[in-house]
Design a protein that fits this description.
This protein has 16 helices and no strands. It is an all-alpha fold and 423 residues long. The chain has 2 domains: 109 residues, no CATH class; 272 residues, no CATH class.
Length: 423
């Protein structure tokens, strides 16, 4: 409402429809239950489709008709957080329909679930079964939880201001002027800069969201688990934006048939699920290609039998982790580039040698090296999980180092929005 008061009507309307749909489904016996489910899905996907994809549809219809699209665009503002709260609402209504969740009878409780401020704008996507036990059995957070929440907020602050925003300058300088920034080194360094930016930016936001929720006595699921240490693309999606991965698995992949219908249909379901996940991110063919790219690799890994969770042999782990990071980074080109032409030009430069400048500076390389060491240390030793039992002087030193890092390296002279606020 502080940004655009009109959009509160949208949020209240969808909240009312889904609250009513949950009650109708629970009280109704027989095939009529599905009507409430369809009404809820139509409302959520209809609003999401109108606000997010109308002008994309106009552009493509105009292209097919051979006419310019600019004069036909509608003046549509994307409501803040609509991609996230619609998915959260859908998960609730579907869970009630599947008899996996009791319908919420108090409309204020349900409205709190949808509009809870820490994760309303950019997740994580929280299921009702994770939220309402904390609400209905609420207790003040313990001292250890307050401590852990504060540590997560500070960690998110460093990830965003010190790391993500430093890399954002490099990524923006390249992807905002792809045609004017030649060179293989420039293409790779600009892409790696964005890979660093989006990880530190989005995981920083979710750290802050989870930490804020913890201070209020709510326990949100982990959303990132060191994804750039993944040893395959399947492992990457078990570590990256885990609440979205789980949502796509439970509400798209499994309803499509999952892996129950044979190998070929399993590959189809993986690709379709990731295409939908890509299109959810934005109204652009770049996002569709990004989703299809990931889906194709996931299907190939399943075909080759390298999609399992077990760790690879120790001597193979570094090579597989590096290969996975490079594959993920190639995908980020489509995610970040402003046009399909910019994406293809960047990929061409990445694999056909051209002279050009390397855009990352020494401090960026130092940030990558330091955070890589910390990530491997956390992967092996779970250091952050054990900080709660450390002496108070350790916590004081950690806070001092964080504030010093923000003061020395923090990008505070400009406002750089969180990447996922656009979704």
């Amino acid at each position: 409402m502080a940004w655009n008061p009109k959009f509160i009507a949208l949020l209240l309307t969808l909240t009312a429809i889904d609250y009513w749909a949950g009650l109708w489904i629970q009280k109704t016996v027989g095939p009529r239950r599905i009507w409430a489910l369809w009404i809820s899905l139509a409302a959520n996907l209809g609003f999401l489709g109108f606000f997010k994809y109308t002008n994309f549809l106009i552009d493509n219809l105009a292209w097919l008709a051979g006419v310019p699209s600019a004069g036909h665009h509608l003046a549509i503002l994307l409501p803040l957080g609509i991609s996230f709260h619609t998915f959260q609402s859908i998960s609730y209504v579907v869970d009630v329909y599947r008899n996996e969740q009791k319908a919420i009878t108090d409309p204020i409780d349900y409205a709190l679930f949808i509009a809870f401020f820490p994760q309303l704008v950019a997740g994580p996507i929280v299921r009702a079964r994770e939220f309402f036990p904390d609400l209905y059995h609420w207790r003040p957070p313990w001292a250890e939880e307050v401590q852990r929440g504060a540590v997560m907020i500070l960690t998110g602050l460093v990830k965003k201001i010190v790391l993500a925003d430093q890399f954002a300058g490099v990524a923006d300088s390249y992807f905002n002027a792809v045609a004017r920034t030649p060179g293989t080194a420039a293409a790779w360094s600009g892409t790696i800069a964005f890979a660093m930016q989006i990880f530190f930016d989005f995981s920083g936001y979710t750290d802050i969201a989870i930490g804020c929720a913890l201070l209020f006595g709510f326990h949100f699921p982990v959303n990132f688990r060191r994804p750039y240490l993944a040893h395959s693309m399947s492992d990457f999606w078990r570590r990256w934006h885990m609440s979205l991965s789980r949502w796509l698995r439970n509400y798209v992949y499994i309803p499509l048939g999952g892996n129950r219908l044979g190998a070929l249909l399993t590959y189809r379901n993986l690709i379709l699920t990731m295409l939908i996940g890509g299109f959810w991110h934005g109204a652009s063919w770049n996002f569709v290609i990004w989703g299809g790219y990931h889906g194709t690799i996931l299907a190939a890994e399943r075909l080759l039998g390298i999609n399992r969770e077990e760790e690879p042999a120790t001597h193979l782990r570094p090579a597989r982790t590096l290969l996975t990071f490079l594959l993920v980074s190639i995908g980020w080109v489509f995610f970040r580039a402003r046009t399909l032409g910019d994406s293809l030009l960047t990929l061409h430069r990445m694999f056909v040698f051209e002279k050009g400048a390397f855009l990352l500076e020494h401090r960026h390389l130092a940030f990558i090296a330091i955070t890589l060491v910390l990530a491997i240390w956390e992967e092996k030793r779970q250091v952050l999980a054990r900080l709660g039992s450390a002496p108070v002087w350790v916590h004081a030193l950690g806070v001092a180092l964080v504030l010093a890092a923000v003061e020395v390296f923090g990008v505070t002279d400009q406002s750089i929005p969180f990447v996922y606020f656009q979704f």
